[in-house]
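Sat 14:20. Reprocessing the chain from the morning session after the first attempt stalled halfway. Input below, unchanged.
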Amino acid sequence: MDRESIIKQLRNKGLKVTPQRLAVIEVLIEQGDLHPGARLVYHEAKKRKKSLSLSTTYATLDELSRHGIIKTLQFDRMENRYETNREEHINLICERCKKILDYKVPIIVDSRGVAKKTGFSITDTRLEYYGYCRDCQAKTKEGGDKCVEEENA
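Finished this time. Tokens:
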């Protein structure tokens, strides 16, 4: 997803395009593959818009998610993360460093067919695989107990 398409979606939903929202959107686009958390988005967006507050960042992320522009990934034991990839995919989540990678789904389930057959109203989908990323596997094999991502945190 690019900046212009997000701005277009905001306008189509009757939302203002503020400098604070733009700063958050730009970070989401740049950091999208990392599935950033709100704190990372805030710290990076604050570099662009000094007057941005953490509460405005959370409110913006919530608003973008409620309007279906981005997706919020909620977890029990880690910070919520945000993604701009709205296509069907599997989130590969490393249990050690918490990195999240997208993997394109080779077979797509027809959600309309499922809804029709079951009478279930489907509002969203999310498929996750948990395990260990290549970096964490390599660190374990080398005898280390920390992943590159943990060391940089």
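The two ends are 27 Å apart (CA to CA).
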